[in-house]
Specification:
By secondary structure, the protein is of the alpha/beta class. The chain has 3 domains: 244 residues, HUPs (Rossmann fold, 3-Layer(aba) Sandwich); 137 residues, Orthogonal Bundle (Isoleucyl-tRNA Synthetase, Domain 1); 50 residues. It is built from 15 helices and 18 strands. The site of zinc ion has 3 residues, from loops.
């Protein structure tokens, strides 16, 4: 079976055939580093990671770029609220992001690109768009893209400008807006006092880029004018990706992206996540509940990336229980690695090649682990092979467990013991209890004696 992906642009599954047979070029819209990324954001990155792992599994070389939006309306607003420089503020959240993706076993892209490192390239594109008559300068010296001058505007999101005449007039300076508010959008925002000390002095004047031009510039600078894959969440389709097409194709006159791929929404308690609704979660919330972050990855893989999923804690806890069962089955296979079972590998490949059908691929994983006609050694080789795509960290988990069994008292446990001692002195018994549970989950037991806490391996 050939590798097939659902292309948002054509609304159908298509056989995958990269522009350059030797190397797939892929771009993922990365985080805006203005706050902790939420679990809905991580659905996008786990989806992009699975896609990349499938390509690598199929033998492709992949050049993958993920950006960090470190200048836009939100980063400026929040850094000012905290009284920090834009650089110091965004660096903090970028580091948190790197830590989170490591915990989720997301492979690093070939390169992370920071928007502020590409101001020159953005200015260059904007000047070309001005020259081509696709953009214009406003009276306050900002530059806007003229959506009526780009004949394919709306091709990704299905927006029909003719029917939107009433709304499609005017222009919008804000980075984010809805489909019913399609307007000329800002490429370059001339400085005003709300920007504070965030500005660049360029041939376009003193100002800063709009959000959408950032991705066009970073993609083009690192991957060339035409790329194979561009990923993001469905909420990126309009206006962000529609605008990227307008900017990139407007300037080059060439087709920008061959396959646009988007993951569906993650809802929490059947609602869109929002801080105001008290249903807003970040990865730290999962870790604080003593749930392995990989359980979140595993839970997402149980659904196709193109279906909406509804996050509830019980579902995640159920996923963790199932994941622990898988780990235990794997550990029970012993030390030796045999040969990959070709029959199961074929079944597995058929699933992932069909637009990343991870729910079906997981059933193949369960099936082989339960199959009594296959030797443990061969099962182990096959599970490790599948894990190149699933990223559930079988071998790593085993190493972690072995490490705990063979080492004295690891530093991590010692630190938790000290933290617990502090909590007990403060008579914070809820915290002390939580820490005991955490220590237990890491394979150690703690007993309180008149001499203090005693630690031993479970
Ligand atoms: Zn983007």
């Amino acid at each position: 079976m050939a590798l097939r992906f659902f292309n948002t642009l054509t609304h159908k599954k298509e056989n995958f055939s990269p522009i350059n047979k030797k190397e797939v070029r892929m771009y993922t819209c990365g985080p805006t580093v203005y706050d902790y990324a939420h679990i809905g954001n991580y659905r996008s990155y786990i989806f992009a990671d699975t896609l990349k792992r499938v390509l690598l599994y199929e033998g492709y070389k992949v050049k993958h770029i993920m950006n960090l939006t470190d200048v836009d309306d939100k980063t400026i607003r929040n850094s000012q609220n905290e009284g920090k420089s834009l650089q110091e503020f965004t660096q903090f959240y970028a580091e948190k992001f790197f830590k989170d993706i490591k915990a989720l076993n997301i492979l690093n892209p070939t390169k992370f690109t920071k928007a502020t490192d590409y101001i020159h390239e953005m200015v260059d594109i904007i000047k070309k768009l001005l020259k081509k008559g696709l953009a214009y300068k406003s009276e306050e010296a900002s530059v806007y893209f003229n959506i009526r001058k780009f004949k394919n505007y709306g091709k990704l999101s299905g927006l029909i400008l003719e029917n939107q005449k009433e709304n499609a007039s005017g222009r919008i300076k804000s980075d984010e807006y809805g489909k019913d508010n399609a307007q000329d959008f800002a490429l370059w925002k001339s400085w005003d006092k709300t920007d504070g000390d965030v500005f660049w002095k360029t041939t376009l004047g003193k100002g800063r880029p709009g959000w959408h031009i950032e991705c066009s510039a970073m993609s083009m600078a690192n991957l060339g004018e035409q790329i194979d894959l561009h990923t993001g969440g469905v909420d990126n389709i309009f206006p962000h990706h529609e605008n990227e097409i307008a900017q990139s194709e407007g300037v080059t006159g060439k087709h920008f992206v061959k396959y646009w791929m988007h993951n569906e929404w993650l809802l929490v308690d059947k609602k869109k996540m929002a801080k105001s609704k008290n249903n807003f979660y970040v990865l730290k919330d999962i870790i604080n509940r003593d749930i392995n972050p990989i359980a979140y990855r595993f839970w997402l893989l149980m659904a196709n990336y193109r279906t909406r999923v509804n996050f509830v804690w019980e579902a995640l806890e159920g996923a963790e229980t199932a994941l622990k069962r898988l780990y235990n089955l794997y550990i029970g296979l012993g030390k030796d690695i045999g040969k990959i079972n070709k029959e199961y590998q074929k079944k597995f490949k058929e699933c992932i090649e069909d637009d990343l059908d991870t729910p079906k691929a997981l059933t193949v994983l369960w099936d082989i682990l339960k199959d009594e006609n296959i030797s443990n050694d061969d099962k182990k080789a096959t599970v490790l092979d599948f894990d190149k795509v699933l990223g559930l960290g079988f071998e790593q988990t085993k190493k972690d467990i072995e490490k705990i069994r063979t080492e004295k008292i690891p530093k991590e446990i010692q630190e938790l013991i000290e933290e617990r001692e502090q909590a007990r002195q403060n008579k914070d018994f809820t915290k002390s209890d939580e820490l005991r549970k955490k220590i237990n989950s890491l394979g150690y037991e703690v007993t309180d004696t008149p001499e203090g806490q005693k630690v031993s391996k479970i």
